[in-house]
Amino acid sequence: MNDISVVDLRGFIAVAESGHLTETAQALGIPQPTLTRRIRRVERAVGASLFDRVGRRLALNSRGRAYLPHARAALGDLAEGGAKVARLMDPERGTVRLDFMHSLGTWMVPDLLRDYRALHPGVDFQLHQGAARVLIERVLADAADVALVGPRPAEAGDTLGWHQLELQRLALAVPEGHRLAVEGPVDLREAADEAFIGMLPGYGTRMLLDRIAGGLGFTPQLVFESMELTTVAGLVSAGLGVALLPLDDPYLAPQGLVLRPLDPPQHRELGLVWRAGAQEAPPVDQFRRFVMGV
């Protein structure tokens, strides 16, 4: 099929609707021969004549009538696509694909969205929850624009941008009445022989547990793995084991358990990641600057 342009299709549709070549050319502000060439390009592209001359009028034949709705649909799709691109480039009407860890869905994410939407009510958000490692891969694969994750990923500074938002001190959580349920910091090695409640592999706190314990020379004996820190805390309070938890998560109520800061201190970094070198996207760029406080 020969190439045809948007203006060729517009010319074809205009003549099909008016039935007059000269008048249509005048309405479009172009010479009649120019409009005639546009019609001919469309006919060459489809491989058939689309009009019959009836007196001084041009009337669509059966082939033209069959083609007309598709030409209109094509122009409609192109217009819709252009409108969507324009919307993506409008920081006040675009879409931000925001991923975040489950543990941030009770405080950080609602707070950010509430404050941002008060300033920019026309912006849409596509939200996705998941494990930190999965969210990082989604950002790298352009399935998400930005993600709120922790700890700081290894790709930060290379293929990922990173901005730290929170630094939470980590603690060993033990049930009340446990042998380690005393005040003061604790060396995680004191719990090396304990049963651990942990997050599933790939989740941020699980990555921290594996890294810290590995650096201390032991592998935690996990008796249950969860997707939610609140579940981990609840099972610790029920006496099923001990866990690594952040000290100052505002929605992680430590009822029935004791939180002992790790010694030496260890922290859970929480921050925003985005794909380094990503193309300009004003709605995303504006939201990222807001989160970063720039």
Automatic annotation (TrEMBL):
Residues 8-61 form the HTH lysR-type domain. One of its GO terms (cellular component) is protein-DNA complex. CDD domains: PBP2_GltC_like (cd08434). InterPro entries: LysR_HTH_N, LysR_subst-bd, WH-like_DNA-bd_sf, WH_DNA-bd_sf. SUPFAM superfamilies: Periplasmic binding protein-like II, Winged helix' DNA-binding domain. The keyword Nucleus does not apply. It comes from the Bacteria. The keyword Signal does not apply. It holds the Pfam family LysR_substrate. Belongs to the LysR transcriptional regulatory family. This is Transcriptional regulator.
